[in-house]
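User: Could you walk me through two proteins back to back? I'd like the raw sequence and the structure tokens for each, with a short line separating them so I can tell where one ends and the next begins.

Assistant: Of course. Protein one, sequence then structure:
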Amino acid sequence: MIKKVHIEDLQPGMEIVKLSSEIWEHLPFLYTEPGIIKSKNQISSIRENGYLHAFIKLDNSSSESDEKRLDRLISQREHTPPQKIRTPFSQEIEVAQKTYKKAMVQAKRIVNDAKLGRKVDYEATIDTVGSIVDSAVRNPDTLLCLSKLSSYDAYTYAHSINVAAISVVFGEYLGLARHELIHLGAAGMMHDLGKTAIPARIISKRGRLTENEFDEVRRHPQHGCDILKRHGKIPEEVLAAVQGHHEKYNGSGYPRKLSKKDIPGFARILCLADVYDALTSDRSYKEAILPNKALAIMYGMRDQDFDTQEVQLFIKCLGIFPSGSLVKLNTGFYGLVYESNPTLPLMPKIKIILDEDLRPIPAKLVDLAAEQAVGKDNLEILECADPSAYKINLRPYLTRKG
């Protein structure tokens, strides 16, 4: 089990977890040198070097994986949102792709307007977000798939769309009304506008930020709020969400150091979506973390960055194996996760697309929960796989029928 701790809470004998990706944007002073902490002198040295947090591996009396532990904790919740009839994935994915493409055009327009000092076209943004909301209601897994299969070449724009889409999907899962989802999605589309006011050399820096540089980054939520205020017609809840999307549950966030329930609800949702997308997206200077591992890390940030109940629901919404994940099966074959299963997170719908040697095969759509219910095949997911490590482009498999 993984948990984030403050440097002051480190003790000799604790094991620092090896992370496969930098997350400096959200945890710029994170100590990441893996291994056992051997002495108090080592802790003092870490503290003197300016590190504030570390991820440690906790002892677990059982051999259950992070994914199964999350599944067990989530399944203990008494309230389960009612199952809704969804538009079939194969039918909605083509609509979702058009929606995503339209959103990319609007995202670029928003950023360019902000850079040029022009008012943001909020009405056009609302129209774009409306399409995202409609697609999320019909079948949320299509947007989640697309958010994980976007290229880092357009990360600045794709990130805003992904945060909007993931936030809307989670908001819809929680039962928000359509007008609330519209405002939430609009905040997601525009949450990072304030970065246009930060020097590019800081935003694109690959190494660790200095304290002065991070002070500049801390200002971007307020910059974004100020940019949007010039429009004059943007709802207060949208402004509050943009301003508060880097606040943390324990009060250590920015710009206002709000804590717990003082953080606006939309801002808390944006923060979850923002961190998840940042962790699971390829960048020019870092590789993405596999979705299930990213969720395990986020779970380790409970009661610090996130409210425990909210992050558990977020994980339940996305699924332990989120849509768009490449997974290895107990048969040795590989599949693409199509649709999550909130009731049985370990048993999503998948499309089996590759054999054990990673050679394409005629695609086969399988509902793991349904298969188990009738005692057929006993297919199981063993682990998530990294498509980039095998140079596999998963996007064509979203619409391929065979």
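----
Protein two, same layout:
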Amino acid sequence: MKIALGVTGGVAAYKSAELVRRLQQEKLDIQVVMTRAAREFITPLTFAALTGNKVITDMFARDDAARANVESAIEHIAVAQRIDLLLVAPATVDVLAQLAHGIAGDFLTTLYLATKAPVIVAPAMNVNMWEHPATRENLATLRARGVHVVDPGEGYLACGMVGAGRLAATEAIVEKVCGVLGLRHDLEGQSVLVTAGPTREDVDPVRFLTNRSSGKMGYSLAEAAVRRGARVVLVSGPTNLPVPEGADWIPVRTTEEMRRTVREHAGEANVIIMAAAISDYRPAAVQAQKIKRAAERITLELEPTPDILAELGREWREGAAGTRRILVGFAAETDHVAASAREKLARKGADMIAANDVTQEGAGFDGDTNVVTLFMRDGREIQLPKLSKLEVADRIFDQVLKLQEQ
């Protein structure tokens, strides 16, 4: 996930460097935006070195070449669209006033108006400024708009006074960020194996059988597990997706390759989620040469591929000790979804089947959303609304944790 960290001009600006490091431990990608006043207290080079990202310091590029670049000219819009959260820490009394009154005086305040992402502010200022009625009104306005506020702590201030106004502790700010983003650590100490994407079964040197799976659901499961603290092994068929940071990615191509890889790593896993759209059939014989086009029909003989989920259901949990092992399968159907999912749940020996009708709007291949029903071994059915695939992944892990407690 990517967040923008707005650093404003107060003595507490130096604490933002520590905040960056702590946020990076949560697997967050940080884009720092500094006000002109912030640069009087700490240099952009510090944040560039810590984040590995360009630090934005001006509304407009300083050199002619950059000014001619359209992307640079509308950078505030581009950043606004790609961040998952805007955090302003420290937030000075001046910047709070600009945010409350919708004044777009620089890159940071313009970014605030342009983004639809959640916003968190962590004020830091003199105690009298903090207690002034104007500041209280501005904060009330921001809270009414849904802005999250991390109140400052009390103690000795840089000005020599004592009272409220110190930037909140780093852990308090990080806790708020994690809470707003829904980041948890409830899978720490666990190993999760996820399969994703399609498999390909060769017909001849230039053709293969496959399906329309994009791999997005499996990659979302891997990303969610990493965010929640798990060690993740992602066994993936061919996709064009970026690998979630922190996951151990193992590319495979055929069902047999996926089977071997899954069995090799299954012994280390507490949870296995088979989200890959594995080919059910493969050619009985792969032709050594390209099949030439002809006028007459040809017959292609197919044979079943290995049923990896069923093999795991029979063998994987035998002798398991400690944390209960959980096996989750997926069922992409076009009709009789519930009946097919319940039959698959029993036949495969899984703990849960996540099933969907791929013909339903928002639930098909390639999209970023899914509409899933979770079928549990104890007979429960949990119907999820249309959610992003990352949200679906989190709901699945919520149920996995409940099953482990039983």
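Residues 389-405 form the longest helix (17 residues).

Let me know if you want the two compared in more detail.
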